[in-house]
Specification:
With about 350 residues, the protein is an alpha+beta fold. The chain folds into two domains: about 180 residues, 3-Layer(aba) Sandwich (Glutaredoxin); about 90 residues, no CATH class. Helices cover about 25% and strands about 10% of the residues. The chain contains eight helices and eleven strands. The strands form four sheets. The protein has a five-stranded mixed sheet with strand order 5-4-3-7-8.
Length: about 350
């Protein structure tokens, strides 16, 4: 489903976002709908309301485990530092049901987030803003009118990772609002993970997480989507799966997960990562039917996965590439690196 361990992390950058914008906003919320008062990761509360000394406010919906939200954390810090002296305030909001306050605090700490990060329990604020994905930004003027909504820029898109952005949508909108000009591109399609909303849906299916859904996830997903593995989030927990349900179905329907690119017309592969139509239907019918938990007695055991070295034979020798880890910058391009290692052999091997 979401991944197999042979996939590279970069695949997860593009698990989210659809070229067809099915959730395009129908109407702009009123300024009264945009005010809020929320708890933050620092233990305080933050309030958004009309203030005479506040020129521009940027509200950014972020997910603690969404790959794009992680990538854009440093960039949002840079924008905060550059525009705060000009009267711009940036507020992060997490509306995911699967992200606890502790998860959001860990996100803030790991990515050194420099702006307030609030928790929107029950996704009430996300609903009023009509926010769909993470990251998704809203630029509000001094009257709390939305002047821009959508993506931060176009550096990361489904299937695309540019070395540099070619369309600084949020930055351009801020410059235009601050200069008193109308925003030329006021709406763009956000790219990222669906917000994991709390859904009050009537149960209309006999399929349950404990029985049918856990089996499908165990077969196709949890090899990587479990604690300590390459995937950015786990799919072994019911609450996590409920929060990721919409994104899960989107990536399956788009053929991006499970990550497998070999065409079946060229032969059969023993390790082919295909999900059957029957298993896809199980997941979709369960999500559409209210996502019931079921009886824990029906829960299958997690598969036994091999830890450590995965190839058939254990290597005869292992050499460290270098004494200290090589630091990869959060953004930009790293030129090809060469590391010379002395194995210390005294004779031919």
């Amino acid at each position: 489903m979401f991944c197999r361990c042979l996939s590279m992390f970069v695949l997860f950058i593009f698990v989210c976002g659809n070229p067809l914008w099915a959730n395009k906003p129908t109407a702009s919320p009123s300024p009264a709908d945009l005010t809020f008062r929320l708890p933050t990761t620092s233990g305080e509360t933050i309030e958004l309301k009309k203030q005479p000394d506040q020129k521009v406010t940027v509200v950014c919906f972020l997910g603690a485990e969404c790959p794009l939200a992680r990538l854009y954390g440093p960039k949002l810090n840079e924008l905060q530092a550059a525009y705060q002296p000009q009267g711009v305030r940036l507020i992060g909001v997490n509306s995911n049901q699967q992200d606890s306050l502790e998860d959001v605090q860990a996100y803030v700490k790991k990515y050194k987030i420099q702006f307030p990060m609030a928790k929107d329990y029950g996704n009430e604020v996300a609903d009023r803003y009509q926010a769909v994905r993470t990251p998704e930004v809203f630029v509000l003027d001094e009257n709390l009118k939305i002047q821009y909504r959508g993506r931060i820029d176009n550096q990361y898109l489904p299937g695309i990772s540019r070395a540099e952005t070619t369309s600084n949508d949020l930055k351009n909108a801020l410059d235009q609002v601050l200069s008193g000009k109308p925003v030329k591109l006021a709406v763009t399609e956000p790219n990222g993970c669906f917000i994991g909303r709390v859904k009050k849906t009537e149960v209309t299916t006999s399929l349950t997480f404990c029985k049918e859904v856990a089996r499908v996830l165990n077969q196709h997903c949890v090899e990587c989507h479990r604690k300590g593995e390459i995937a950015p989030f786990s799919l072994t927990d019911y609450d996590e799966v409920r929060g990721w349900a919409d994104t899960m179905l989107e990536t399956i329907d788009d053929g991006r997960m499970p990550p497998w690119h070999a065409s079946p017309k060229y032969g059969h592969y023993a390790n082919a990562r295909f999900m059957s139509d029957e298993d896809k239907k199980v997941l979709r019918d369960w999500v559409d039917g209210g996502m019931p938990y079921g009886d824990v007695k029906d829960m299958p055991k997690l598969p036994a996965f091999r830890e450590g070295w995965h190839l058939p034979e254990v290597p005869e020798a292992v050499f460290e590439m270098r004494k200290q880890p090589y630091q990869i910058p959060a953004e930009g391009v790293v030129e090809y690196q060469y590391f010379v290692v002395d194995p210390g052999f005294k004779e031919d091997k």
